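F.,

This is the one I mentioned.
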């Protein structure tokens, strides 16, 4: 199925082969899309290069983009405009909080840690969407990743839960601003998946175990499953959908 042939998508946030961003990249690649990868810095460049080399077409573009720096965002999208021109969608798969603030009581969150989590995990979607909008001249679709901890209290998720709550609201405001340009903005609320970012959350194993025991599907979800929902949201299959959160979590969120 080459549903996305002739289309170009930006994937932000591949750190390694376990990254949800990589699951999304594979789903889009298999549907025929051309991919542009952005990575946080030199530290991750080699990882991304090695992963991209495993794809069976080599039409990808790789660019650095630390989302805490406006000038890097501007430069990355200027390069994309110059080398590719039009883009049709973007997957924002980026979050960060200090490990010491992903445990214990939320009340101990520092001002600096709060700002950092909000900046990287929530505000970055605003900055990146503004830059991407200029290249989405044929309409587009933007997808971000959120988590249940933004809707309700999940132990240890703390400052990241508050950042996800902001992100969920940002999706709605962006959807309203960009809708008239035929750009849709949605998020996927993924169930817990063992990744580098997840390692930072204290007792992550017990979160996984709860899903296996209690979620309607009695199992955790995979990067591939998040990838398939991203394919839906980034393609015309979801053409009437914007400002939405889709839970890909084995149904866990419906439990009281
Ligand atoms: O259970 C999970 N893994 C879930 C993850 C459940 C629900 C949602 N999510 C979300 C995360 O909150 C995040 O928004 O999915 C998104 C992707 O996270 P991931 O795939 O779980 O984790 P990972 O592979 O670590 O990718 C996140 C990446 C960073 O990796 P590291 O671990 O090196 O911090 O976000 C990127 C970076 O590549 N990132 C940045 N990119 C650009 N600029 C920055 C930055 N300043 N900071 C972090």
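My design for it:
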């Amino acid at each position: 199925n080459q549903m996305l042939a002739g289309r170009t998508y930006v994937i932000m946030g591949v750190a390694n082969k376990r990254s949800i961003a990589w699951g999304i990249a594979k789903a889009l690649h298999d549907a025929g899309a051309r991919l542009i990868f952005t990575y946080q810095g030199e530290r991750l460049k080699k990882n991304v290069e090695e992963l991209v080399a495993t794809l069976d077409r080599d039409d990808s573009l790789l660019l650095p983009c630390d989302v805490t720096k406006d000038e890097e965002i501007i430069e990355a999208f200027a390069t994309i405009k110059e080398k590719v021109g039009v883009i049709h969608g973007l997957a924002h798969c980026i979050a960060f909080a200090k490990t010491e603030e992903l445990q214990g009581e939320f009340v101990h969150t520092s001002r600096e840690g709060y700002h950092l989590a909000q900046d990287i995990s929530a505000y970055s979607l605003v900055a990146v969407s503004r830059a991407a909008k200029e290249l989405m001249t044929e309409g587009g679709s933007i997808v971000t990743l959120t988590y249940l901890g933004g809707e309700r209290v999940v132990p240890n998720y703390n400052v990241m839960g508050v950042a996800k709550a902001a992100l969920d609201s940002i999706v709605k405001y962006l959807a309203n601003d960009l809708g008239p340009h035929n750009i849709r903005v949605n998020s996927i609320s993924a169930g817990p998946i063992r990744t580098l970012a997840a390692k930072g959350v204290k007792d992550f194993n017990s979160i996984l175990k709860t899903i296996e025991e209690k979620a309607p599907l009695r199992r955790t979800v995979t990067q591939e499953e998040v990838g398939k929902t991203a394919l839906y949201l980034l393609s015309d299959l979801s053409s009437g959908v914007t400002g939405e959160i889709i839970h890909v979590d084995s149904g866990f969120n419906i439990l009281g």
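Helices lie at 20-30, 42-52, 70-83, 111-133, 158-178, 196-199, 204-214, 223-234.

Talk soon.
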